[in-house]
Specification:
single chain, alpha/beta, Rossmann fold, Alpha-Beta Plaits, 2 domains, two-stranded parallel sheet, 9 helices, 9 strands, 30% helix, globular, binds flavin mononucleotide, binds iron/sulfur cluster
Length: 247
């Protein structure tokens, strides 16, 4: 979605958060800043939370968010973003939330849809991009200003505090052939190959990429994932993740 949206905006630079997050300070001279990310735990992935806390937006006049999600409703993305933006004297100018499907196969029951439905949902979501891009280009103010009460904040903060160590539940089963692909594709370098087996280093974001994209389907999370079909984004191939990391 981020790449497709970029194509529709003038003079837009796409910067992965992962390229910035370890800097001591994050500054931008952009007058317009957008955050594009999937909803996690009814709100922001930890890395997005950390980024918004850290980024200096004093030169920015317009802030928007585009979030993909698997579940219904607006959830608590807008509230949390506005809470993080408040100390910076900012508020979300526009928020675009779009339901695609859920890759969160740790849920019960398994939320994965058929490949056809995944593709249909993505195509539907992308058909809205022209309208959203026009709103962004015209500085149009959208839904972002509403919502300040966040009834599930405690549970979300607990998720943020614990998520890095949730990888204690990962292991590779007998199908692992030691290829090292999981090491190559983890966006936060959280996996080491030791004696030809992956070991998780407790800085996990729970993006599930290693689990979904292991070619042997050898990565399991506790008892949840055995025998469950894996999810590969219809447009993003394994090679793209490997190349992205090799840059
Ligand atoms: C750790 C995790 C937590 C998630 N939590 C939620 C959630 O609370 N609500 C929701 O609607 N979708 C949730 N999802 C589903 C993601 O939002 C969905 O998989 C994503 O938007 C799909 O787009 P992508 O393939 O571009 O990542 C979660 C996914 C993961 C991996
Ligand atoms: S990608 Fe899968 S098969 Fe390859 S090392 Fe990792 S767990 Fe093993
Ligand atoms: S790829 Fe695996 S280890 Fe890396 S952050 Fe995602 S879930 Fe955690």
């Amino acid at each position: 979605m981020a790449k497709r949206l970029k194509e529709k905006l003038n003079e837009c630079e796409l910067i992965p958060i992962i390229d910035l997050i370890n800097q001591n300070s994050i500054n931008t001279t952009s007058e317009k800043v957008g955050l594009v990310f999937p909803v996690y735990n009814w709100s922001l992935p930890k890395i997005v939370y950390d980024f918004v806390e850290k980024v200096d937006l004093s030169n920015t006049k317009y802030v928007f968010a585009l979030c993909t999600k698997g579940g219904p409703g607006r959830q608590y993305v807008i509230q949390m973003l506005n809470k993080l933006l408040e100390p910076k004297n900012k508020i979300l100018d526009a928020a675009f939330l779009v339901k695609v499907f859920s890759a969160f196969i740790l849920a019960k029951p398994n939320p994965l849809h058929s490949k056809e439905k995944q593709l249909r949902r993505i195509t539907d979501a992308e058909s809205k991009l022209d309208e959203w891009a026009e709103q962004i280009l015209n500085n149009k103010k959208g839904k972002g200003k509403k919502d300040s009460y966040y009834p599930m904040e405690d549970s979300y903060i607990s998720f943020i505090e614990k998520v890095n160590n949730e990888d204690e539940n990962y292991y590779s089963d007998g199908n692992c052939n030691g290829c090292g692909i999981c090491v190559q594709i983890c966006p936060v370098d959280n996996i080491k190959l030791i004696n030809e087996k992956p070991e998780w280093q407790h800085k996990c974001q729970q993006c599930l990429r290693c689990l979904h994209y292991c070619p042997q389907e050898a990565i399991q999370f506790g008892e949840y994932t055995k025998g469950r079909e894996r999810y590969n984004h219809p447009y993003i191939k394994l090679k793209e993740f490997i190349n992205e990391k090799a840059k």
